[in-house]
Amino acid sequence: MKLLCIGDVCSPAGVDKALEFIPKLKKQYGIDCTVVNGENSSDFNGITENEVSLLVSAGADVITGGNHTLRHRSVHPVLDENPFVLRPDNIQSDYGSGYCIVDKGSYKIAVINLLGQVYIDNPKAENPFLAADKLIERAREDGATVTVVDFHAEATSEKRALGFYLDGKVSAVFGTHTHIQTSDIQILPRKTGYITDLGMTGPADSVLGIEKDIIIARMRDGKTDKFRFAGGKCIISGCVFEIDQKTGHTLYAKSFCI
Asked: pLDDT, tens digit, for every residue of 65-91?
């Protein structure tokens, strides 16, 4: 089976890019399942019911989240009602979860969403390594032969460590959150597909999607102007994993940034 993973959709313009390109990518690669990180897709970070609807119409089978997912209260009931809209499982919340099963008939895919602890401003985040162990066992009990993990984390070291820790236990681990695609797409020794960060789907001429002058002024002069998403050309970033649905091993991995 072929899995399409799309990096953090950032801003309404990023949603438009996803709407345009995800159907093309699914057709080009013969995709069986699409996982999209939508955690910055609304106009003020986070995600609302509107962006959920748009990303599903673009072709997302599962929408994963991160540290901003719970920002808008309007999405809270969506997290309860739609099992394929996730938030990190290792944060304390009364809404939703970070685990779902996509049933493809002849096989099942478990999707796990976790939040890092290093440099992430969320003191309620529990240990992602221990959380992963519990959810992987749950996936086995649910009959999943393919298990993939979206690890929404800041530190490359933490992402890399979790990747090696889960090598051979899951089919693929991909990082999100830092919005810059890394060049380390690979298959780890025990056949787990891995990339430290998928990158961003949003404004290219920006600092992580935000107008660059605002970020420069904040870093250089300490100004605190309100963040605004940048305009201009958008990119879409992500990767494709080809996975043996019987063994759960990754056979092929390719990243892209368009």
From this structure: 999 999 999 999 999 999 999 999 999
